[in-house]
Each structure stands twice: as C-alpha cells, then as structure tokens.
Amino acid sequence: xxxxxxxxxxxxxxxxxxxxxxxxxxxxxxxxxxxxxxxxxxxxxxxxxxxxxxxxxxxxxxxxxxxxxxxxxxxxxxxxxxxxxxxxxxxxxxxxxxxxxxxxxxxxxxxxxxxxxxxxxxxxxxxxxxxxxxxxxxxxxxxxxxxxxxxxxxxxxxxxxxxxxxxxxxxxxxxxxxxxxxxxxxxxxxxxxxxxxxxxxxxxxxxxxxxxxxxxxxxxxxxxxxxxxxxxxxxxxxxxxxxxxxxxxxxxxxxxxxxxxxxxxxx
Amino acid sequence: xxxxxxxxxxxxxxxxxxxxxxxxxxxxxxxxxxxxxxxxxxxxxxxxxxxxxxxxxxxxxxxxxxxxxxxxxxxxxxxxxxxxxxxxxxxxxxxxxxxxxxxxxxxxxxxxxxxxxxxxxxxxxxxxxxxxxxxxxxxxxxxxxxxxxxxxxxxxxxxxxxxxxxxxxxxxxxxxxxxxxxxxxxxxxxxxxxxxxxxxxxxxxxxxxxxxxxxxxxxxxxxxxxxxxxxxxxxxxxxxxxxxxxxxxxxxxxxxxxxxxxxxxxxxxxxxxxxxxxxxxxxxxxxxxxxxxxxxxxxxxxxxxxxxxxxxxxxxxxxxxxxxxxxxxxxxxxxxxxxxxxxxxxxxxxxxxxxxxxxxxxxx
Lengths: 267, 364
Hints:
The complex is a heterodimer of chains A (267) and B (364). By secondary structure, chain A is of the alpha/beta class. Chain A contains ten helices and twelve strands. Chain A has a single domain, classed as Rossmann fold, CATH 3.40.50.300. The mean pLDDT of chain A is 89. Chain B has 364 residues and is an all-alpha fold. Chain B has one domain: ABC transporter involved in vitamin B12 uptake, BtuC. In chain B, 79% of the residues lie in helices and 0% in strands. In chain B, helix 2 packs across helix 3, helix 6 packs antiparallel against helix 7 and helix 12 runs parallel beside helix 14. The chains are: A alpha/beta (267), B mainly alpha (364). The interface between A and B is large, with 47 and 42 residues.
C-alpha cells in the first residue's frame, strides 16, 4: 500500500504549553487509524495541524509527497476533509445544500447534475433521505453530525480527518457511521483512508486497522488494536484498570474498564 | 399552476436517470428563483408607479408606463417631472437598495453574525465621519467636490473595516463583540461629527444634517449613474464569494478551511468590498441603515441562506424596500417629503420584528 500521509517531527504549542511534541505519523492508503487519548492529549490539535487549520511550530506534513503548506487550500481540501466535533450556526441551510458544500473544492460556481447526484448518493449512503430538505439548524445534534460527515464524504477526499464523529450519536448510528467509514476505506478501487479521534475504545478496536495512543502530546503506542490495547497501555494513558477480552477466530477485542481508577489502587 | 410549469420545465432539462433527490433540489431552486423574479417584477411595477407619484402632477400607472416605454409622448412638464425630477431619485433608490442590502448580506455572512450590517458594524458611521471631514474641514485626498466626499467616506469606512479585521485576529472573539465594537465606533464617530456640527457654518450644518436623515433627493442623475456603474461592477465579485460565504456562515473558520476557503483573506476582501458598496451610496444619500440589516433577513425567508441565491434576493429586497419607503415618504404627507432613512425605520422596523418573532414561534 502506498503512503498517503507522512507527518514528521510535528510540534505545536499554545503559548508555553506544548500540546504536540515531535510527533511522527504515517498513514497508508486504505487504512483506518484511530487516535485514543484523554481530553487535552492533543488529538484535535493534531487533526487541525494536519488540515492546516493550525500551523505547527515545527515539523513537516506531506500528502502524497507534497508538503501541505505548498498546496493552496482548494487543492488540500481535495486531498483531505475534516469533520469538527460540532457545528453550530446562527444561519441555516437545507441539509442538501450543506452536503453540497463538500463539492465546493471540485467546482467553480455553478453546480452540475453530476455534483447533485454525488450529494444524493451520499445522502442515501448515510440514510439521510428523511431530512434531506430540512433546515440544518432544526436537526438534533446527532443528525447534524451525520450531515457534516456526509459533507466530508461528498468532498471525495483521500483522507478523512474526523474529530469524535460519533460523540453525539446513539448506539445504532455510532455503529452505522463507523461501518460506512470502514466500507469507504476498505474499497481497494478507491484509495481512501481515515484518521479518527475517538473516545470509545471498543468502537476504535472494532473498526480500526491501527490505533495510536496519544499521551501528553506524544504517541506512546501505535499498532494493531490487539497490540496497542493492553492493560498497561490503558492504565498509562487513561489511568484506569481494565480487562481485555480477545477472540482469536475473528480478532474481536473488547476492553472492559473497571470501576477503580489507577491512582486509588496505588494508594 | 406555476409550480406545474416549473416542474415540466425542469423535467425537460433534467436527465431521466437523475436521482429523485437531485431533481427535488433543482425544483426547489426553480421555485425560489420564481419568487425572486416575481419580487423583481413587483419592484419594476413599483418603480413605474413611483415615477408617476409625487407632491404634484400625479399620473396613473398606465399613463406613466406608456410614457416610460415610449408608447405615449409626454408633455414638456410631464417629461421634466418624470425624467429629470423623479427618475434620478428612483434609480438611486434601486441602486442604493441593491448596494446596501448586498453589503449587509456580505457582512453578515463573512462574520457569521445575523446582527451585522453596515450601520451596526460602524462602517456607515465611519463613512459619515469621512464625509463630514470633507464637508466641514475641507480635507480630502481628491480635490473634486463630490468625488472628494466619496473618497473620504470610503477611506474612513476602510479604517473601521481595518479595526474589525484586527479584532477578528483574536481567536476567542465572539460574534457579539463585533456588534459591541460597532456600537463603540458609532458613538466615537458620532461624537466627532457632533463636534464638527457645533463649529460648522450654516451651509455646512445643512449638508451634515442631510447625512443623518438619509435622503435620495440630492444625487444628480450623473452621480446616480456613476454609483450604478460601481455597484453593478462589484456585484459579480460579491456573487463569486457565495460558496465561501456558505462555508463561513455554516461552520466557522475551521469548517471553511477544510472546505478550501481561506477565512482571513476572504473576510478581508469581503469587508473591503462591502465598505466600498456602502460608502459609495451613503456618501451621496446620507445614513441609511435599516436596509443592510433587514433586507438579507427578509430574503432568507424566501431562499434560505445559500448565498448564491441570497445575494441577488437581498439586492432585490433592498431595492423594493428603499423604493417603497421613499415613495411612501414622498406621497404620504405630500407636499412634505419625509426622508427615506426615517421612513425605512418607521415601516421596516415593525415588519422586521414580526419576521423575527414569526421565526422564533416556529422554533418553539
């Protein structure tokens, strides 16, 4: 598999506070990578640095060997699309038009029927038909999140950067969205990858090819879910004790977090 | 009936294999376009009516239309009243409405704030200060009477825009802060203009007072045509930014960047263009604030927040509002003429409140 993203030595700080420290990250085509870590570990900051929303203090980020800072934003947005944690606005548009915004990097001003059909297909792909022509700000938080993910899909990028894309979703839709993303990434005819900042360890374990554990701005573990999700790593990163259940025949992995937090056990 | 017509027209254009959702999207767009065309047609009818109405020599609409379209030869008096007296004013109302409403829509979009307008942001007050300096102190960059005022108005509105852009560099700035800064700027410029009024001659005072009212009577036809050239020239650029504005208003800067928009550059360019559109009009008419705030909101009721449709629809609403208010101001207490700025606030304010309350009732 070809390398899609190569970030090396990426550092970022808010004033004196170092958020990302000399971070290295590579993503291959058709790879779904999840980033796990506590609040403030630097997950969102990393995604924003990769998408040029934030400028790293040092380091280099390349997509298909091109430095992202040598690309204009239109070109970059053809390579990658970013889904923020939440989108709220004082103004509103029809859901169809919100998703149509994903076609913006590919068009000049007028919309072709092909672009419309791409939006329609995305709507069907994520089962959004029921509210395709409702106003965006009349939707629930979970519905809005699905629409923004649909916009990212309609953008047709090589890399999806998703910041907690399932945080507002109910259980069924969490699985549904992750399945759809998995489906997109697994398609060998279309070299797409995804980097997902997520809090749900079990969802990450189930759908990811690779998991990164981010702790205090550094990647402390990277690899297949089975390799990364160990009791020691989880205790180190999240400060909780856990039991790991692994099913050999289908590589199913489940992490059960116990009630006690690590500090209390140590005391 | 009209819906069926649009539907059949759409099906002629649309490929049979097109997704039904795409067809629905096209049909919705066509319906919205039809409403904008209807509003444009109403504005033209209102303009013809307004040409025939005034403090003297009222003509019925048919006679006015016959004269305007060259079917009937007017008397010399009718010709003078329609073409020399009323036409510049009505054209100014239309062009001014287009400019101020478009500037309001652009400003609301690029700052993602529904309360923003050339007046609430202080851009109009800045322009007024620039014009006042030209009128009272005679300080201008271009030493041509009317052009000097326009250039001053533009430069001072740019100073306000510069302050707003600098304010936007603070990441934590809230949408409300822009309005608060706009109020502060309005107070400061207002105080300076008042001080100048205090020391102004009678002639200068009269010219300055004209500013605060907002009237369409002053610009000559040649001024109006120049303003029209500038406004029409700027409109395609405003429309070109529609997609960028859609991204900015929907999800803010982070969302816009991921859609290929550079928020800092786009915001700066849009604010400069809006300032130019605002100042080129109010340099001649005086402060007219309500159109820039209300017309975009009224347009949203019809076409939503897609700026590809919102900008033209706001422009048409702006023209209609301006023309309606001015015609009412000229005819209601004829021969006394109430300035358009006052009329707009009187009739537009309650209507605007109704629209907002209607919206909040739906939300509840």
